[in-house]
Write a structure and sequence with these properties.
- Chain B: Belongs to the AccD/PCCB family.
- Chain B: Keywords: Ligase.
- Chain B: It holds the Pfam family Carboxyl_trans.
- The complex is a heterodimer of chains A (664) and B (510).
- Helices cover 27% and strands 33% of the residues of chain A.
- Chain A has 17 helices and 40 strands.
- In chain A, β16 and β17 form a beta hairpin.
- In chain A, α4 packs antiparallel against α5, α7 packs across α8 and α12 runs antiparallel to α13.
- The longest helix of chain A is centred in the C-terminal third of the chain and has 22 residues.
- Chain B is of the alpha/beta class.
- In chain B, 37% of the residues lie in helices and 17% in strands.
- In chain B, α4 packs parallel to α5, α12 runs parallel beside α14 and α16 packs across α17.
- The radius of gyration of chain B is 26 Å and the shape is elongated.
- The chains are: A alpha+beta (664), B alpha/beta (510).
């Protein structure tokens, strides 16, 4: 058996591998770059080896440095995680030479699947369904029409050299195919100087569904069900689940068997994933590619199958036989994974770097209601999200007996997850959990683009939710006011008496309420019974409203309360009725006109200008750095804008309020 | 009997109407509340005791005898904020533009005298067109009477001014001599001479907002300590500030129940200081981590942001915080930050508010602008203020404490009671690079040698232990236990007593 595993990775996946290794009684070695000196995986591992500067090109993906670390620590196996060297055949080969076990597939399989064209060919040969299309050159429009008709409409006409949507046409009939071919060809010629065109089936409602396979070195290869990863943003998966709400048993079996056939064809062992694109309308699936590694979203498979994939990978690498067969693989319940990214959804998902001033994930494990929460992470409170690596903070998974139970558990887990200090997509994830379309499982890979056409602006509370939040705010306020009058030095018997009648304003709405015990009575006579233990200073609390539990993040905003729940982010003011009446007289002010100029905030030297004239910058994007008093300060865009003029050069000294750049 | 009672009610009703419905509507139209409405927001409901409601002016020039309004443009009295007593005057713009007459001033003086005698703070809500010109010198005398009382009360009771409309000419000097000035954005302004006079005299064209609006006074002139969106928000924030302040200089600051463990461990603080000492970090994170419930009331947030001043509570009791901010100008001391902090330290000292100083200071800002501006004297103000303070003082050095700035920032030598340092502290005459360049000038041509010398210097001096070995640092503490250590430090200083020599007063370098 393997005695010591070196994990050639960082972040959550390194931590995740360490957990299983530890469970199996295997020692672990972490590697780390300059930027990861204080990282969690370094802390968790038995040993840690420094492998170079922060950029991964100088550390995590330098094979020789990993080999050195192996020699130094005497590790007898390497787990590559995902990304970095995980699908690098040369690395697997080097390990083989070194006599160290690679916890992954054989070199040949990595090579075969690493090439898009080879893999497609191999798949087709193995009887795997591939996207119907014509890869060869097409001579003229007539041939294009003929090919299109044989593939079946709609088809996609693509420039071979294409990219960014250029030279791409969708045709629904012969006529469109003819026109599309011509315009595609012209456009490709002018854009890329290469007018080669190919045609393939266009999938109108594509879903991304993938099959987890697992094989040993003794000829057994199994499929462990599927994962649906259709919720993506710019090809980056955001929410995954297992099983898929789309597949029926027969399709699942067909896909699974094809995936196994492909794996067998390349002599695969260890864990791997065969990705398919599924035509939601035609109910057909087509091979996309095979990932010869552990997938980011593997935890959802683990949650529904009960199989620890990392453990199986280690056992397979050690030469053990799989201890179960295909008939033992049962999909139990439903699991959802939300990827928590350091990307600010309010600023068009711009990466956000900085310090996690607060990081409190929800408690993991089995809950009273039978659901399970799992959180895979590589960060800690006070840690830094750096610019060098993937901006993923955590993978939050929930399991429930069925899909909606798992989704609701996810909603609650997100409400209980506190992350501060950087921008992150948690409110966005919460918003998706509440969307009817997501809940009903009508997914396609265009889901986010379709459901958030104008970007993400937060969830607006409906009437019922606004009342709940108002009731909570009234309760918070009573707690705060009751404490305020306990101050020392009050004037004897003339103390302030905290009243029962209050007016809560929240997101433009206003609610007159009367508080009696835990009951909040509204003007219309209805009331809500609120329970909960919040004390001033608590940043999160659970409330029960009419028996239903709500996790709410609470913070101070001036004299009001900022409440966050289920993607909603509102400020509530609670005032005595006479003050609330006067507050109505206050003018509504337009947000201040953020200047169209970036001025130097301090005397200093411009060390770099990071944008050029004509660039479109997003809010929060770094524009320039100024060094002052030997400190580097990053100046960021306040809003989305186009750079009109850059007035300075790197090295220039500036005084306070000198112009750095202008925006249109 | 009943007729007399009814007469009282009708006189009260008349007085409450101030300048009349039409003017009240005009005031509301400008987004402003009336004098009495403001008091209703500021004070606990039903707690206001009004005095001098029926006072009218005695002027007979310019037809003024026909323009008498009960109260004469200012509402005065006392009430409570969360049950604690406070005297209030609120100028009524609906009555003759809130202009200050002899009797208007007398009303203000009356409650100031009472406040001083009874040891309760004064809050002035200013909304006045200025002196009542019809009264001439009598009005000027009125201003001066108020000024004198502001000074007499200074350091004895806290005085807070809220500018909620115009405040121009001589009128500005009463708020200027109080402890805090707050302004309402877009509807208040303060200046000695208005835009018209400015134009006549200097040919400068400037709007009232640019000349003396909230932004000008919070960010540029530092006349104001804070500004808020509207009347309601401003008054609510004044209530919040009031809860931090003692009623007078004979009292300790107020204490209220708290819901935060004084021994709370904050592991995140162990990684607050970046690996590179040229990388900034946000000192406010530390302040929030140390404070009860993360509650911090910042004073002069928009001005001299390289130093942070404000109030927190520790174990329910008010503590004044002064902290260098590495995010701005590396947290250096300069003219503005020294003045800002000096004023704050003196306020805390006058009112028995313990001071917590958080130090990460690379030194004083160099440059001709600073020297010509008199950074020597301005820096001395902060040094003077700290040296003079006798309230409990706890200092924590998080990173840099270089040169003279180390001395200034509440060092042991000038009277701080307990001085802590984190292991990341570097207490030295200057940074390693600068020091080696002076000490080893002859080796400057050889970068390798200099690098070695720098490393050597860092090893020897870039730590808290050289100072700790001499007792200048009482203890080097773990960042994560800072709240506990600081809370215990202040607890140990609760009965601190210092006898000071008699003197008429000091001669602080103003």
């Amino acid at each position: 058996m393997i005695k010591k595993i070196l994990i050639a990775n960082r972040g959550e996946i390194a931590c995740r591998v360490i957990k299983t290794a530890r469970k199996m009684g295997i020692k672990t070695v972490a590697v780390y770059s300059d930027a990861d000196r204080n990282a969690l995986h370094v802390e968790m591992a038995d040993e840690a080896v420094h492998i170079g500067p922060a950029p991964s090109s100088q550390s995590y993906i330098v094979i020789e440095k990993i080999l050195e670390a192996i020699r130094k620590t005497g590790a007898d196996a390497v787990h590559p995680g995902y990304g970095f060297l995980s699908e690098n055949a040369a690395f697997a080969e080097a390990l083989e030479k070194e006599g160290v076990a690679f916890i992954g597939p054989p070199v040949g399989a990595i090579q075969a699947m690493g090439d898009k064209i080879t893999s497609k060919k191999l798949a087709a040969e193995a009887g795997v369904s591939t996207v119907p299309g014509h890869m060869g050159l097409i001579a003229d429009a007539d041939e294009a029409v003929k090919i299109s008709a044989s593939i079946g409409y709609p088809v996609m006409i693509k420039a071979s050299a294409g990219g960014g949507g250029k030279g791409m046409r969708i045709a629904w009939n012969d006529e469109e195919a003819r026109e599309g071919f011509q315009s595609s060809k012209n456009e490709a010629k002018s854009s890329f100087g290469d007018d080669r065109i190919f045609i393939e089936k266009f999938v109108t409602e594509p879903r991304h569904i993938e099959i987890q396979v697992l094989g040993d070195k003794h000829g057994t290869t199994l499929y462990l069900g599927e994962r649906e990863c259709s919720i993506q943003r710019r090809n980056q998966k955001v929410i995954e689940e297992a099983p898929s709400p789309f597949l029926d048993e027969a399709t699942r079996k067909a896909m699974g068997e094809q995936a196994v056939a492909l794996a067998k064809a390349v002599g695969y062992h260890s864990a791997g994933t065969v990705e398919f694109i599924v035509d939601g309308k035609a109910n057909k699936f087509y091979f996309l590619e095979m990932n010869t590694r552990l997938q980011v979203e593997h935890p959802v498979t683990e949650l529904v199958t009960g199989i620890d994939l990392v453990e199986q990978m280690i056992r397979v690498a050690a030469g053990e036989k799989l201890s179960f067969g295909q008939s033992d693989v049962k999909l139990n319940g439903w699991a959802i994974e939300s990827r928590l990214y350091a990307e600010d959804p309010y600023r068009n998902f711009l990466p956000s770097i900085g310090r996690l001033t607060r990081y409190r994930p929800p408690a993991e494990g089995k809950k009273d209601d039978g659901t399970i929460v799992r959180n895979d992470t590589g960060v800690f409170e006070g840690g830094e999200i750096s610019m060098y690596y993937d901006p993923m903070i955590a993978k939050l998974c929930t399991w429930g007996k069925d899909r909606l139970t798992a989704i609701d558990a996810m909603g609650r887990a997100l409400d209980d997850f506190e992350v501060e200090g950087i921008g992150h997509n948690l409110p966005f994830l919460s918003a998706v959990m509440g969307q009817e379309r997501f809940r009903s499982g009508r997914l396609t890979t265009a889901y986010i683009a379709e459901e958030f056409r104008d970007g993400f602006t937060g969830v607006q509370p409906g009437e019922a939710m606004a009342r709940r939040l108002a009731a909570i705010a009234a309760l918070l306020n009573r707690t705060r006011e009751a404490r305020a009058v306990e101050i020392s030095g009050t004037i004897g018997n003339h103390k302030r008496v905290v009243g029962k009648d209050w007016v809560v304003t929240l997101g433009g709405a206003s609610f007159a309420v009367t508080l009696e015990g835990g009951s909040v009575r509204f003007e219309d006579g209805t009331s809500l019974v609120v329970g909960g233990q919040w004390q001033p200073g608590d940043s999160h609390a659970h409330f029960t409203i009419d028996g239903q539990r709500m996790g709410v993040k609470v913070s101070r905003s001036g004299t009001g309360f900022r409440l966050r729940h289920a993607g909603i982010d509102v400020i509530a003011h609670v005032r005595e009725p006479h003050v609330a009446a006067l507050a109505k007289l206050m003018p509504v002010k337009l947000p201040p006109d953020t200047s169209r100029m970036l001025l130097c905030p301090m005397p200093g030297v411009i060390t770099s200008v990071l944008v050029a004239e004509g660039d479109t910058v997003e809010a929060g994007q770094a524009l320039a750095t100024v060094e002052a008093m030997k400190m580097e300060n990053i100046l960021r865009a306040e809003k989305r804008a186009v750079v009109k003029k850059v007035a300075v050069k790197a090295g220039q000294s500036l005084a306070v309020d000198e112009l750095i750049m202008e925006f249109e | 009997m009943r007729a007399v009672l009814e007469q009282l009610e009708s006189r009260r009703a008349e007085a409450r109407l101030g300048g009349g419905t039409r003017r009240i509507e005009a005031q509301h139209g400008k987004g402003k509340l009336t004098a009495r409405e403001r008091i209703d927001v500021l004070l606990d409901e039903g707690s206001f005791e009004e005095y001098d409601m029926y006072v009218t002016h005695r002027c007979t020039d310019f037809g003024m005898e026909a323009q008498k309004v009960a109260g004469d443009g200012v509402v005065t009295g006392w009430g409570t904020i969360n049950g604690r007593q406070v005297y209030v005057f609120s100028q009524d713009f609906t009555v003759l533009g809130g202009s200050l007459s002899e009797t208007h001033a007398q009303k203000i003086c009356k409650i100031m005298d009472m406040a001083l005698k009874n040891g309760a703070p004064v809050i002035g809500l200013n909304d006045s067109g200025g002196a009542r010109i019809q009264e001439g010198v009598a009005s000027l005398a009125g201003y001066a009477d108020v000024f004198k009382r502001n000074v007499d009360a200074s350091g004895i009771i806290p005085q807070i001014s809220v500018i909620m409309g115009p405040c121009a000419g001589g009128a500005v000097y009463s708020p200027a001599m109080t402890d805090f000035i707050f302004m309402v954005r877009d509807s208040s302004y303060m200046f000695v001479t208005g835009p018209d006079v400015v134009k006549t005299v200097t040919n400068e064209i400037v709007t009232a907002e640019e000349l003396g609006g909230a932004r000008t006074h919070t960010a540029k002139s530092s006349v104001a300590d804070g500004a808020y969106e509207n009347d309601i928000e401003t008054l609510e924030m004044v209530r919040a500030l009031f809860d931090f302040l003692p009623l007078n200089n004979r009292e300790k600051p107020p204490v209220r129940p708290f819901h935060d463990d004084p021994a709370r461990i904050e592991m995140r603080l162990d990684t607050l200081i970046p690996d590179s000492n040229t990388k900034p970090y946000d000192m406010k994170e530390l302040i929030h981590a140390l404070a009860d419930e993360g509650d911090f009331f910042e004073i002069q947030e928009a001005f001299a942001r390289n130093i942070i001043t404000g109030f927190i509570r520790i174990e329910g009791q008010t503590v004044g915080v002064v902290a260098n901010q590495p995010m701005v100008l590396a947290g250096c001391l300069d003219i503005d930050s020294s003045r800002k902090a000096a004023r704050f330290v003196r306020f805390c000292d006058a009112f028995n508010i313990p001071i917590l100083t958080l130090v990460d200071v690379p030194g004083f800002l160099p440059g001709t602008a600073q020297e010509y501006g008199g950074v020597i004297k301005h820096g001395a103000k902060l040094l003077f203020a700290y040296s003079q303070a006798t309230v409990p003082m706890v200092t924590l050095i998080t990173r840099k404490a270089y040169g003279g700035a180390y001395d200034v920032m509440a060092s042991k030598h000038i009277g701080a009671d307990i001085n802590y340092a984190w292991p990341t502290a570097e207490i030295a005459v200057m940074g390693a690079k600068g020091a080696t360049e002076i000490l080893y000038r002859s080796e400057l041509g050889d970068p390798e040698k200099i690098a070695a010398r720098t490393a050597e210097y860092e090893e020897r001096f870039a730590n808290p232990f050289v100072a700790a070995e001499r007792g200048f640092i009482d203890e080097v503490i773990m960042p994560h236990s800072s709240r506990k250590r600081i809370a215990r430090a202040f607890a140990s200083l609760r009965n601190k007593q210092v006898d000071t020599r008699w003197r008429k007063h000091d001669t602080i370098p103003l």
